[in-house]
Amino acid sequence: MKLALLSFILASAINVIPQPLSVREDKGSFNLKGTPIACDAAMGEIALAAVKDFSANLTLAAGQIYPVSTPVGLSQTIKQGKVKGIVFGIDPTLKEEAYTINIDKSKCVVLASTDAGILYALQTLKQLLPSAIYSGKTAENEKWVLPCCEIKDTPRFRYRGMHLDCGRHFWSVAEVKKVLDMMATLKLNRFHWHLTEDQGWRAEIKAYPELTNIGAWRAETVIGYQPANPELKKDGIRYGGFYTQDEMRDVVAYAQKLGITVVPEIDLPGHMVAALASYPWLGCSGKSIEPGHEGEDYKVWEIWGVSPDVLCPGKDTTIEFLKTVLGELCDIFPGEYFHIGGDECPKDAWAQCPDCQARIAALGLKSDEHATAEQRLQNYVTSEMQAFLATRGKKIIGWDEILEGDLQEGATVMSWRGKTGGIEASKRGFDVIMTPDRWCYFDYNQCPDRGDESKPVWEAVDEPTCAWWGTLPLAKVYSFDPTEGLDKQAASHILGCQANVWTEYIPTEEQLEYMIMPRLFAMSEVQWSQLKNKDYDDFIRRVKAEGVKILKEKNFNYRAKDELAE
User: Fold this and answer.
1) Closest CA to 78 of 100, 102, 104, 109
2) How far is CA 560 from CA 192, 467, 517, in A?
3) Quick check: 505 and 465 in contact, CB under 8 A?
């Protein structure tokens, strides 16, 4: 009996990732040979365009035409049960991102209340089809059928994100779009685009052209794993790049078609050496205070870590600069959120800066058991940006350091230093996006075993040199629960979670993809699937049965070891 059940499971045609809310597999299949596709005429433009793209992909892959029509009142006809073929209708009773799929031998009926629900249903349909649907090639010999089944689905969290650091290493627009495609396949809906760093400024700003003329380029880069290179030897190769405003708009439009909102990040007031190198007046003294380089001109950083050189919030010109930069980007990124960083901002320079101390005095900022006056000076910067962005209809997100001192109501906290910051923020009534490093940092090594503890990390594990600390195997990502330990009230403030891909040690597209996959499969299930439906063994089965095929068809590199070893 057990062997028979196991055989049925392994032969299942329903291998959707992330795991849907409920799945009922019935006998038989629906033959798609030349079947028409119909969409309710009241469907939104994004959903209709996505269905037409699906039709074009299916036409190419199956070698037959799948025409799309848009009859008026189709949703009512669906209710009457008078349809055949593949039909997409509107059901206003479904939740915002929910969808249902019902397939029998004569029809496939998809219902949703929004464009988002239709987009997610399409991703599920693709995973029910032969994987050649992802190839962009004709595969007429495949069986172009859909399994008879009923799927009801809705996500656990409304914020399902992935972050990509383009400051340390720069990624082409084509590669960014490739990552967005993979995100869409797994029903992620937020792309956190990290555009500025000490090592490179990546966003064109018309008012400040030196940010990309100078700040987008570093003279050279530290070689290898930095702790293994105490002399900080460098490669002598100029490195950089940036996105024009038109390119950023192109990425935003591309993401919108996939149901993904881009969340830009301009990290401030720390991690700003590239800006300081471009406009030295942004710093407290106009010169570096970095140990060993005191009094030297700023230059785009060539090593990794945290620089003591930060923006000077004591000057009105600095605040004006930030508002101008954010203002230009608000015209490009239409989403509700703007990420202002706020992490790892040393305040040594502020303690010695006459302008900063004058600002502290003018604002009446004091040190106490909760925060220093300098920490509250960062609160001032945060509140100024929050107020400015509110005039543009946007909310701020900041790393959990923004909790230090006095955070204004309405901010959203992104918890990265473990779960503590997110727990504190949620209990204080702030919305939270959980991204604790031990579960969500995809620059960590993937080995299940750290290896020989007596050796440094770059020698102990059989992986690319890619991590500051420790390891993050696939199973640990899957085990993450963003609301663990929170009561119902605090848990209500957890908007969701995201994977973070920091790229100090990820210099190539091949390695970038290797670090993302297969861990993004696991993160998607953390973000989308209900806890009661999560099962690691079944997850691995579905990744082997469907996920690996998707990766191969999309030519997306991945780690094929451990549980996924062939």
Assistant:
1) 109
2) 27, 19, 9
3) yes
Contact by Cβ (8 Å): 170, 127: no
Three-state SS at 160: strand
What distance in Å separates the CA atoms of residue 400 and residue 404, rounded to the nearest whole number?
Answer: 8
Per-10-residue mean pLDDT for the chain, 566 residues long?
A: 41 87 96 94 96 96 93 93 94 98 97 98 98 93 96 98 98 98 98 98 98 98 92 98 98 98 98 98 97 97 97 98 98 98 97 98 96 97 98 98 94 96 96 97 88 76 70 96 95 98 95 97 98 97 97 97 86
The full DSSP string for 336-353 is: SEEE----S---HHHHH-
Nearest to 522 by CA among 448, 432, 416: 448
Taking Cα atoms as reference points, which of 125, 121, 123 lies closest to residue 112? Answer: 121
- Is 335 strand, coil or helix? coil
Please state, in angstroms and as integers, the Cα–Cα distance from residue 476 to each residue in 319, 522, 565, following that order.
41, 9, 18
Domains and CATH numbers, the chain: 22-153 (3.30.379.10), 159-530 (3.20.20.80)
Amino acid at position 309, single letter: D
Tokens linked to 556: 């997306």
